[in-house]
Every structure is written in structure tokens, then in C-alpha cells.
Design a protein that fits this description.
The protein has about 120 residues and is α+β, with helices and mostly antiparallel strands. It has four helices and six strands, in the order E-H-H-E-E-E-E-H-H-E. It has a single domain, classed as 2-Layer Sandwich (Alpha-Beta Plaits).
Length: about 120
């Protein structure tokens, strides 16, 4: 089964946020990079991509045949989705184990594990 692991950044310092990222020591920054590299080398992982900050988002809706756009998301920045990856695993427990190794999970964020529906 394939699972999408949605990385909710929370208060996690990321390279996209230079001020917060600078709070981490060089060793801590290298540990984060190494953890993501190890995750991406895991069999069954299809690396996803990081996302730009929430304030760069555009939300699209269609009402009465008209396309409506709104700048930004409708979530607080602390809850924003920061990236994702796909993991093909034997079961949910394996996906949870991988999710727990994602740095954001232990640095103020959360990882949402969701099965991928394949048609």
C-alpha cells in the first residue's frame, strides 16, 4: 500500500525560514539534512518536494461556474503543510515508523500519514 506523508511544519525551523533556521547549530542543521537524506534513500520512498511558505499560496474555488482565487491559505502558518513524500509500505505501522523519523515530527511539527487511493 502507498501512503502519503504530509509534513506539517509547525514551529520547525527550515531552510525556507532563514531566521528560524539560524537558531539551529551547524551540527543540528547537518543532522536535519542527514535525516532527510536517509529517509529518501529508504526503499519504497518516493521523495516529495518542500513547499514555499504559506503566504505564497493561492486558494482556488469554483462557484456558479466562476473561478475564484484568494491569496494565501486558510490555515494558521504554524499549521501549514511544508512538504510531502510517498512511501510504499507493507502496512500502516511501517509508514508510522518512517513518519516518526522525519525531523519535523520531533521539532514542533506533525506528520499526517494517509493511504493513497489508486484507481
Amino acid at each position: 500500500m502507498k501512503y502519503m506523508l504530509l509534513i506539517h511544519q509547525g514551529t520547525t525551523p527550515t531552510p525556507n525560514s532563514p531566521e528560524d533556521w539560524a537558531r539551529l547549530s551547524q551540527d543540528e542543521q547537518q543532522a536535519v539534512y542527514a535525516a532527510y537524506q536517509k529517509i529518501n534513500e529508504n526503499p519504497g520512498v518516493t521523495a516529495g518536494l518542500g513547499l514555499a511558505p504559506p503566504e505564497t499560496a493561492t486558494t482556488v474555488r469554483v462557484q456558479d461556474g466562476r473561478t475564484l482565487t484568494t491569496d494565501g491559505p486558510f490555515v494558521e502558518t504554524k499549521e501549514a503543510l511544508g512538504g510531502y513524500l510517498i512511501f510504499e509500505a507493507d502496512d500502516l505501522d511501517a509508514a508510522i515508523e518512517l513518519a516518526a523519523s522525519i525531523p519535523a515530527a520531533s521539532m514542533g511539527g506533525a506528520i499526517e500519514v494517509r493511504p493513497v487511493v489508486e484507481w
